[in-house]
Amino acid sequence: MSIIIRKPRDSYKRHALTRGLTIRILASITVILFYFVLFGVVGFFAFGQNGETFGLSLAFIITLIALLFGDRIFLVSIRAKEVDERYTQLFFTLNKEMTFKGLSKVKLYKANGLEPNFYSLHPIFSTPSIIISDEILKENDHEVLQSGLIKSLSSLKTKRLRLSNFISILVSILMAPKYVLRNYELSYLEIIYSYIFVPLVFLKEFVNSETEGKLENLGREVGREVTTLFYLEKFPIRDKGFRDNLAKDFRVFNRSNDGLWTSSFGGFSEIRNRSIKNNEIKKPT
Predict the structure, then answer these.
(1) What total of structural domains would you count in the chain?
(2) How confident is the model over 237-259, as pLDDT tens digits?
(3) How far apart are alpha carbons 133 and 139 in whole angstroms?
(4) pTM of the model
(5) 24, part of any domain
Protein backbone atom coordinates (compact mmCIF):
# COMPACT_ATOMS: atom_id res chain seq x y z
CA MET A 1 0.00 0.00 0.00
CA SER A 2 1.45 3.31 -1.06
CA ILE A 3 0.82 6.46 0.83
CA ILE A 4 0.54 9.71 -1.11
CA ILE A 5 1.42 12.80 0.87
CA ARG A 6 0.05 16.01 -0.56
CA LYS A 7 1.05 19.46 0.47
CA PRO A 8 -1.79 21.55 1.83
CA ARG A 9 -3.07 24.31 -0.40
CA ASP A 10 -1.90 26.98 2.05
CA SER A 11 1.73 25.95 1.51
CA TYR A 12 1.40 26.68 -2.22
CA LYS A 13 -0.07 30.08 -1.43
CA ARG A 14 2.78 30.86 0.95
CA HIS A 15 5.31 29.75 -1.64
CA ALA A 16 3.71 31.97 -4.30
CA LEU A 17 3.64 34.95 -1.95
CA THR A 18 7.28 34.42 -0.95
CA ARG A 19 8.36 34.11 -4.57
CA GLY A 20 6.44 37.27 -5.55
CA LEU A 21 7.97 39.21 -2.64
CA THR A 22 11.46 38.02 -3.58
CA ILE A 23 11.00 39.14 -7.19
CA ARG A 24 9.75 42.56 -6.11
CA ILE A 25 12.66 42.99 -3.68
CA LEU A 26 15.21 42.05 -6.35
CA ALA A 27 13.65 44.49 -8.83
CA SER A 28 13.66 47.23 -6.18
CA ILE A 29 17.33 46.58 -5.33
CA THR A 30 18.12 46.85 -9.04
CA VAL A 31 16.42 50.27 -9.17
CA ILE A 32 18.42 51.49 -6.16
CA LEU A 33 21.70 50.15 -7.62
CA PHE A 34 20.88 51.88 -10.92
CA TYR A 35 20.48 55.12 -8.96
CA PHE A 36 23.90 54.82 -7.31
CA VAL A 37 25.69 53.72 -10.48
CA LEU A 38 24.14 56.57 -12.48
CA PHE A 39 25.06 59.28 -9.99
CA GLY A 40 28.52 57.79 -9.49
CA VAL A 41 29.27 57.71 -13.23
CA VAL A 42 27.90 61.23 -13.84
CA GLY A 43 29.87 62.57 -10.87
CA PHE A 44 33.08 60.89 -12.08
CA PHE A 45 32.85 62.30 -15.62
CA ALA A 46 31.76 65.73 -14.39
CA PHE A 47 34.19 66.28 -11.48
CA GLY A 48 36.77 63.51 -11.65
CA GLN A 49 37.52 60.98 -8.94
CA ASN A 50 36.21 63.17 -6.13
CA GLY A 51 33.04 63.69 -8.15
CA GLU A 52 32.30 59.97 -7.92
CA THR A 53 32.12 60.23 -4.12
CA PHE A 54 29.94 63.32 -4.43
CA GLY A 55 27.58 61.53 -6.84
CA LEU A 56 27.24 58.47 -4.59
CA SER A 57 26.60 60.71 -1.57
CA LEU A 58 23.91 62.59 -3.52
CA ALA A 59 22.27 59.31 -4.54
CA PHE A 60 22.24 58.20 -0.89
CA ILE A 61 20.66 61.49 0.25
CA ILE A 62 17.92 61.34 -2.44
CA THR A 63 17.16 57.70 -1.59
CA LEU A 64 16.94 58.57 2.11
CA ILE A 65 14.62 61.51 1.39
CA ALA A 66 12.35 59.31 -0.73
CA LEU A 67 12.32 56.68 2.02
CA LEU A 68 11.58 59.03 4.92
CA PHE A 69 9.63 61.89 3.32
CA GLY A 70 8.30 60.46 0.03
CA ASP A 71 4.69 60.45 1.20
CA ARG A 72 4.91 64.09 2.32
CA ILE A 73 6.48 65.08 -1.00
CA PHE A 74 3.53 63.52 -2.80
CA LEU A 75 0.91 65.05 -0.49
CA VAL A 76 2.49 68.51 -0.85
CA SER A 77 2.76 68.18 -4.65
CA ILE A 78 -0.97 67.39 -4.98
CA ARG A 79 -1.88 70.06 -2.36
CA ALA A 80 -3.74 67.53 -0.25
CA LYS A 81 -5.81 68.66 2.73
CA GLU A 82 -7.22 66.55 5.52
CA VAL A 83 -10.94 65.81 5.21
CA ASP A 84 -12.90 67.69 7.85
CA GLU A 85 -15.28 66.11 10.32
CA ARG A 86 -18.48 67.30 8.60
CA TYR A 87 -18.41 64.14 6.44
CA THR A 88 -19.76 62.09 9.34
CA GLN A 89 -20.99 59.15 7.24
CA LEU A 90 -17.59 58.90 5.53
CA PHE A 91 -15.70 58.76 8.83
CA PHE A 92 -18.20 56.27 10.23
CA THR A 93 -17.54 53.94 7.28
CA LEU A 94 -13.78 54.50 7.58
CA ASN A 95 -13.68 53.68 11.31
CA LYS A 96 -15.94 50.64 10.87
CA GLU A 97 -13.83 49.15 8.07
CA MET A 98 -10.60 49.93 9.92
CA THR A 99 -11.93 47.97 12.90
CA PHE A 100 -12.87 45.01 10.69
CA LYS A 101 -9.44 44.98 9.03
CA GLY A 102 -7.41 45.55 12.20
CA LEU A 103 -5.94 48.91 11.17
CA SER A 104 -5.16 51.35 13.97
CA LYS A 105 -4.75 54.64 12.11
CA VAL A 106 -5.31 55.86 8.57
CA LYS A 107 -5.33 59.50 7.51
CA LEU A 108 -7.96 60.73 5.08
CA TYR A 109 -7.11 63.49 2.58
CA LYS A 110 -8.82 65.28 -0.29
CA ALA A 111 -7.07 66.76 -3.32
CA ASN A 112 -8.22 69.08 -6.08
CA GLY A 113 -6.91 68.80 -9.63
CA LEU A 114 -6.18 65.07 -9.59
CA GLU A 115 -7.90 62.57 -11.87
CA PRO A 116 -11.09 61.56 -9.99
CA ASN A 117 -10.20 58.35 -8.15
CA PHE A 118 -9.14 56.96 -4.78
CA TYR A 119 -5.42 56.83 -3.95
CA SER A 120 -3.67 54.65 -1.36
CA LEU A 121 -0.36 55.74 0.10
CA HIS A 122 1.52 53.41 2.46
CA PRO A 123 4.93 54.82 3.49
CA ILE A 124 7.38 52.63 5.36
CA PHE A 125 7.88 54.90 8.39
CA SER A 126 4.71 57.03 8.44
CA THR A 127 0.96 56.69 8.82
CA PRO A 128 -0.83 55.27 5.75
CA SER A 129 -3.18 57.62 3.90
CA ILE A 130 -6.17 57.52 1.60
CA ILE A 131 -6.64 60.43 -0.80
CA ILE A 132 -10.01 61.11 -2.39
CA SER A 133 -10.30 63.50 -5.31
CA ASP A 134 -12.39 66.57 -4.59
CA GLU A 135 -14.92 65.82 -7.37
CA ILE A 136 -15.89 62.49 -5.79
CA LEU A 137 -16.04 63.96 -2.30
CA LYS A 138 -18.31 66.84 -3.36
CA GLU A 139 -20.84 64.50 -5.02
CA ASN A 140 -20.89 62.49 -1.78
CA ASP A 141 -22.20 59.27 -3.36
CA HIS A 142 -22.32 56.89 -0.38
CA GLU A 143 -21.98 53.68 -2.41
CA VAL A 144 -18.97 54.98 -4.36
CA LEU A 145 -17.26 56.30 -1.22
CA GLN A 146 -17.84 53.03 0.63
CA SER A 147 -16.51 50.95 -2.28
CA GLY A 148 -13.40 53.12 -2.56
CA LEU A 149 -12.68 53.02 1.18
CA ILE A 150 -13.10 49.25 1.39
CA LYS A 151 -10.75 48.60 -1.52
CA SER A 152 -8.22 51.18 -0.29
CA LEU A 153 -8.14 49.76 3.25
CA SER A 154 -7.81 46.21 1.92
CA SER A 155 -4.66 47.20 0.05
CA LEU A 156 -3.25 49.04 3.08
CA LYS A 157 -3.88 46.09 5.40
CA THR A 158 -1.47 43.79 3.56
CA LYS A 159 1.40 46.34 3.68
CA ARG A 160 2.42 45.26 0.17
CA LEU A 161 2.15 48.84 -1.09
CA ARG A 162 5.11 50.00 0.99
CA LEU A 163 7.80 48.83 -1.40
CA SER A 164 6.03 49.81 -4.62
CA ASN A 165 5.18 53.28 -3.24
CA PHE A 166 8.81 53.88 -2.29
CA ILE A 167 10.10 52.79 -5.72
CA SER A 168 7.47 54.92 -7.51
CA ILE A 169 8.54 58.04 -5.62
CA LEU A 170 12.24 57.29 -6.12
CA VAL A 171 11.88 56.85 -9.89
CA SER A 172 9.56 59.86 -10.19
CA ILE A 173 12.17 62.12 -8.58
CA LEU A 174 14.64 61.05 -11.26
CA MET A 175 12.05 61.59 -14.02
CA ALA A 176 11.11 65.10 -12.82
CA PRO A 177 13.52 66.85 -15.29
CA LYS A 178 11.53 65.29 -18.14
CA TYR A 179 8.54 67.46 -17.24
CA VAL A 180 10.74 70.53 -16.85
CA LEU A 181 11.93 69.98 -20.44
CA ARG A 182 8.31 69.56 -21.53
CA ASN A 183 7.33 72.88 -19.93
CA TYR A 184 10.08 74.63 -21.92
CA GLU A 185 8.93 72.79 -25.08
CA LEU A 186 12.28 71.05 -25.51
CA SER A 187 10.64 67.97 -26.99
CA TYR A 188 13.84 66.42 -28.47
CA LEU A 189 15.67 66.57 -25.15
CA GLU A 190 12.56 65.23 -23.41
CA ILE A 191 12.46 62.21 -25.74
CA ILE A 192 16.19 61.52 -25.29
CA TYR A 193 15.89 61.81 -21.50
CA SER A 194 12.90 59.43 -21.49
CA TYR A 195 14.69 56.81 -23.61
CA ILE A 196 17.74 56.85 -21.35
CA PHE A 197 15.66 55.84 -18.36
CA VAL A 198 13.33 53.34 -20.05
CA PRO A 199 14.84 50.38 -18.09
CA LEU A 200 14.25 52.19 -14.80
CA VAL A 201 10.64 53.00 -15.64
CA PHE A 202 10.14 49.40 -16.78
CA LEU A 203 11.38 48.09 -13.42
CA LYS A 204 9.07 50.48 -11.58
CA GLU A 205 6.08 49.32 -13.65
CA PHE A 206 7.10 45.71 -13.01
CA VAL A 207 7.15 46.22 -9.22
CA ASN A 208 3.77 47.99 -9.37
CA SER A 209 2.20 45.32 -11.60
CA GLU A 210 3.45 42.54 -9.30
CA THR A 211 1.91 44.36 -6.33
CA GLU A 212 -1.38 44.97 -8.16
CA GLY A 213 -1.55 41.30 -9.12
CA LYS A 214 -1.36 40.28 -5.45
CA LEU A 215 -3.92 42.91 -4.40
CA GLU A 216 -6.38 42.37 -7.24
CA ASN A 217 -8.89 40.20 -5.37
CA LEU A 218 -8.42 41.60 -1.87
CA GLY A 219 -11.55 43.15 -0.42
CA ARG A 220 -13.20 42.80 -3.79
CA GLU A 221 -16.94 43.20 -4.15
CA VAL A 222 -17.47 42.77 -7.85
CA GLY A 223 -20.91 44.41 -8.18
CA ARG A 224 -19.97 47.47 -6.16
CA GLU A 225 -16.57 47.76 -7.84
CA VAL A 226 -18.07 47.67 -11.34
CA THR A 227 -20.58 50.34 -10.29
CA THR A 228 -17.72 52.52 -9.07
CA LEU A 229 -15.74 52.01 -12.29
CA PHE A 230 -18.74 53.03 -14.39
CA TYR A 231 -19.18 56.05 -12.11
CA LEU A 232 -15.55 57.09 -12.70
CA GLU A 233 -15.97 56.82 -16.48
CA LYS A 234 -17.80 60.13 -16.62
CA PHE A 235 -14.55 61.88 -15.64
CA PRO A 236 -11.74 62.34 -18.21
CA ILE A 237 -8.38 60.62 -17.69
CA ARG A 238 -5.69 63.17 -16.91
CA ASP A 239 -2.03 63.02 -17.95
CA LYS A 240 -0.80 66.58 -17.83
CA GLY A 241 2.46 66.41 -15.96
CA PHE A 242 4.59 65.18 -13.11
CA ARG A 243 1.83 65.18 -10.52
CA ASP A 244 -0.66 63.21 -12.64
CA ASN A 245 2.00 60.69 -13.68
CA LEU A 246 3.04 60.07 -10.08
CA ALA A 247 -0.55 59.79 -8.87
CA LYS A 248 -1.24 56.97 -11.35
CA ASP A 249 1.00 54.67 -9.32
CA PHE A 250 -1.14 55.20 -6.22
CA ARG A 251 -4.68 55.01 -7.64
CA VAL A 252 -6.98 52.29 -6.31
CA PHE A 253 -9.19 51.79 -9.37
CA ASN A 254 -7.25 51.24 -12.60
CA ARG A 255 -8.91 52.80 -15.62
CA SER A 256 -8.32 52.05 -19.30
CA ASN A 257 -7.58 54.80 -21.82
CA ASP A 258 -10.17 53.16 -24.09
CA GLY A 259 -12.87 53.41 -21.45
CA LEU A 260 -14.45 50.68 -19.36
CA TRP A 261 -17.16 49.80 -21.91
CA THR A 262 -14.70 49.53 -24.83
CA SER A 263 -12.13 47.51 -22.88
CA SER A 264 -14.79 45.15 -21.50
CA PHE A 265 -17.11 44.71 -24.46
CA GLY A 266 -15.32 46.32 -27.40
CA GLY A 267 -14.14 42.97 -28.74
CA PHE A 268 -17.61 41.44 -28.82
CA SER A 269 -18.65 42.96 -32.15
CA GLU A 270 -15.37 42.00 -33.77
CA ILE A 271 -15.70 38.39 -32.59
CA ARG A 272 -19.32 38.21 -33.73
CA ASN A 273 -18.54 39.64 -37.19
CA ARG A 274 -15.65 37.23 -37.64
CA SER A 275 -17.90 34.31 -36.67
CA ILE A 276 -20.56 35.37 -39.15
CA LYS A 277 -17.98 35.68 -41.91
CA ASN A 278 -16.36 32.32 -41.21
CA ASN A 279 -19.63 30.43 -41.02
CA GLU A 280 -21.21 32.41 -43.90
CA ILE A 281 -24.42 32.99 -42.04
CA LYS A 282 -27.07 34.44 -44.37
CA LYS A 283 -30.59 35.61 -43.90
CA PRO A 284 -33.21 33.00 -44.94
CA THR A 285 -34.90 33.71 -48.26
Answers:
(1) 1
(2) 776 677 777 888 888 888 766 55
(3) 11
(4) 0.77
(5) no
